[in-house]
Structure formats: C-alpha cells, structure tokens
UniProtKB/TrEMBL annotation:
Compositional bias of kind Polar residues: 170-180
Gene3D superfamilies: 3.40.630.30
PROSITE patterns from the UniProt entry: GNAT
Pfam families linked to this entry: Acetyltransf_3
Keywords: Transferase
Entry keyword annotation includes Transport: no
GO molecular function (one): acyltransferase activity, transferring groups other than amino-acyl groups
Domain of life: Bacteria
Protein name (record): RimJ/RimL family protein N-acetyltransferase
Renumbered residue ranges of the record's region Disordered: 170-190
Protein's organism: Hungatella effluvii
Every N-acetyltransferase domain range: 86-267
Amino acid sequence: MTEERTVFISGTPYTVTISSEQEVLSAAYAAGGTIIGLWDKNRSGQSLAPADYIVECVEDADAEFLERVVRRRLHMPWIIAETERLVIREFTAEDAAYMIPEDAGPGDEIFHSREKLTAYIDSQYRFFEYGIWAVVEKESMTVIGKAGLFQPAGGFVNAEIQQTEIRQAEVQQTESQQAEPSPPQKKEDTPLELGYHIFTPWRRSGYAKEACREILNYGTGRLTGRICAVIEEGNTASIRLAESLGFRLTAQKCSESAELLYLYEASCS
C-alpha cells in the first residue's frame, strides 16, 4: 500500500510518501522526498529502509507528525512550543553566530561553535527528539536564551527519586490495611532534567518562566512523567522559579565541590 500526503509549512506544500513497499520508499527518498514506512504486522521479513519513521496505519500520520518528519528530512528545526512572546524551537547551525560569548557557561561551547552545534543537532535531536532548545523572542526573532530537557548526570537524581518512592511506598503500606496486595505499579521512564539560561539583556522579564512552563507541558505530555531540576543552594532565583512552576523539594546533597544541591521534582499528576 502506498499513499501520498501533502502538508503545508509556512504556506509551502510538501509531499510525504507513506508506503509498505521498500522499493517505493527507496525511490522517493533517492529523489529527495520525505518518506514514512507503513508497517504490516502480517508480513514477515518486511524491510522499510531507508525510512526513519514508521507507522502502523496511515491515520497515525496526522498533520503535526507529517510536518515534523518533513522538517527532520529537510533539516528544518522543530517548533516545540509558542507563547505570546516566545518561540521555543530546535537550534540551527546558524544560531551559533548569535550566541553571546559573555553569557557562556559550562558546556556552552557546543552552542558557540557551528561545527559542534551541527553535531549536537544531528545526534541529540535526531535520536532522542528532545534536548536544549533555542528560546526566540517573537517580535525581533532574536535568540534570547536556551532551555530544554536533558538526561540527568550522575546517580543523584535517579537514586534520590528511587529512595523517595521507597519511602512513600513504605508509608502507604503501613497505612493500608487491605487484605489483598496492590498490583505492581508500572515503573516510569527515567526522569529528565529541566535546564534554562536566558541571556543577560533579557533577564527579569519573565521569559524563563514563560519558556519553562511550556517545556514542562511538552515534556510531561510527550516524553516522561518525571521532570526534575537540580539547583544550587544559593540560586534563589531558580528556586523561586521552580516552586512557582509547581516543583517540590524532594532531596538534597553536597556536590563534589561541597556545594549544597537541591533536587526538585515537578508535580506532573
């Protein structure tokens, strides 16, 4: 089965070929087109190469999905969210030229080098479909910072959340007098960590909260049920922001440099 669908991006039409036939997919891809494989569970040995995206039925490919597949194929950034003042989107290689050197922090060399940023885009976005995104001010279309989700480093987040779950489970078990044991709960995905950095000229304008609120909505709706934030004790601005977004303090520990770190977890229920 083969079907061609059209999606409009900024008024421009793009054709997407959806097919269960490898020959059709290969020909469309070789011609520079966008393709989606159609999986037939009743066909053994089916190959849908070189499709990066696969659906079980054509109806699964809605307009948003089609647009994202086209954008990935043509190296156009995904739009993650929009607010009244901001666009949160994937970085492009060209954004490296607009980073502010004075605002660079640890690990920020990735975003200040076109080559490193290109490698980040090709690996992080392509395989995980999340990461650190560009925060763009709508009126001027200027990149005013970055924010997003990433895998927590080290064992602090996972270990502390696991211990919190154990303590909560122990309390519930003590309080419960049920004769029959409760069914085991499904373990959720590894938590993702929220991070943000608004460049100095645009701080104190509410942009961080505006961006982080939309990223939380996006992350908990699509990626995971657990989003956390690790904040240094003295970073009162980030603590206030986290609490205003509904995060709650769940643990704390000292870093290798003897700084006290707080672990906050978002209330995503």
